[in-house]
Design goal:
The chain is about 55% helix and about 5% strand. It is an alpha/beta fold. This is DUF2029 domain-containing protein.
Amino acid sequence: MLQRATTATDLRESMPAAGGLRRSWTTNLRGKTLAPIAIVVCSMLAGALYTFAMGEDVNWDWQNYHEYNVWAVLNGRYGVDAIPPGFQTYFNPIVYFPVYYLRHFLPSPYGLMIIGAVHGLNLALICLFARLVLGQAATFAAIAAAVAIAASGPMTLSEVGTSFSDVLLALPVIGGFLLILVGDRRPTVRYLLAGLLIGAAVGLKLTNVVYAIGAAAAVLAAARPLRASVLLGLGGIVGAALTGGEWCLIAWRDTGNPIFPLFNAVFQSGEVAAINLMDAQFMPHGVLDALAYPFYWVVGDHRGAEHPFRDARFAVVTVLLVLGLLARMTRNSAILTRRDVQLVVLFAVSYLAWMGLFSIQRYAVILELLCGPIIVLLLARLAASAGPTFPTTSPVPLNALMLTVAAAIALWSQPADWWHRPWSEAYRPKIADELGQPATYFILGKPLAYIAPQLPPQSRFYLLADIGVPIVPGGIFDQRIRAGLKAPLPGGLRELHMRGEPDRSALLDRYALAIDPARPCVAIEGARPGTILESCPLIERGSR
């Protein structure tokens, strides 16, 4: 039978159907494109607005070394000064360059609002993370619950729009974790890239090593664990070398220790005692104390941080993990997929490494962000395993439960505050005329290094008051100080201290110096509201 030839009438009749199909495809494509863009924009906007609401960041670490270390690199100060920030002088400054430039080259509040917007990208990443790990359970409510839990983290909020690098480096670390969870497809590229991202974060800030340990444990549950481990390790080495290698060489050249002053029992720098310095003030005292930490945080017992905070998310994760283990044992069947197991291992091992190394709350920002996806995942898996005891014919009860838990966690959370100033009183200290000449400053407290860039650029700054890294007699810093004393500057010799702090003028005895009682001290407004720095003139002891 011959086919009928297509007529113009047939074409006209088919065109509306084709047009409708094309419009439907275009609408679909536009929706898939606009949704991620909207999520990213909203995340960045949330970070910027939160920064604006909080005010100008003047946290302790910014006062001590975030500001000074970048300024010192840009102005060649590492061969002139003697460790003004003390212990933290040789911490890698590269990660602090963006916030330094944004603070100095854009008017307030725009510079810090931009960095806050970048920090806000973590919410978009958590949204993607939650969608991936939840799979078919990724309802709008589930993803919203995960993001709400992440967005209300007390340490996360405390760092948004600040110079702290933990929340900034959460982006490559969580990105690396995401690649590990999808690493079994195109494993070579994804595991290498995951290692590169996590390694880069470690090179920029060594405390991120806990997440490298968690990642290494997680790939043991990969489809081909040996291959995954090798690729992750290679990527990690390259990433750490790219971001931290050059700075390690500089520190090694200057002090004999590539990560000075850490692990000096290994590297044996003569500038500090041959011990492995650790900040153990927040560490738990025994196993039971460690197990109780998440529940301490629920009631506002803020061991792990200098400033008060309150947080329930880690306690919720702990309870859900115990319930999941009990469900697995009683039902004798797995309730988690292999990818779920990878995520739980990654989280648990990172947490244990964090607690075993330092237990400093700010360093757990990445774990805090990941609590959101993990809580909704565990709720979904426990509900699915409950069988007839939980209504599964409709997602409404589970969605309601997730949103209720998220709301309770968010409302209960209380963020820490590392000190802010109102934008109307942005920190621009007035330097008295008496300090207008370059001088040699002996610093008798911390954190005071941030004032160095405000003083005449030819000045010299020597810290005598650091407990972790005291000036070693005959060492390179001691020699530098003594050489400086033989080459006086026009402004003479002065000391710097914080008004109201204990008197540390006895530290000047080593260099036969004393505060000159015949001349007045000069006050400088401190960065933290209500604080005053003082600079007093010095004289040689023999001339009193």
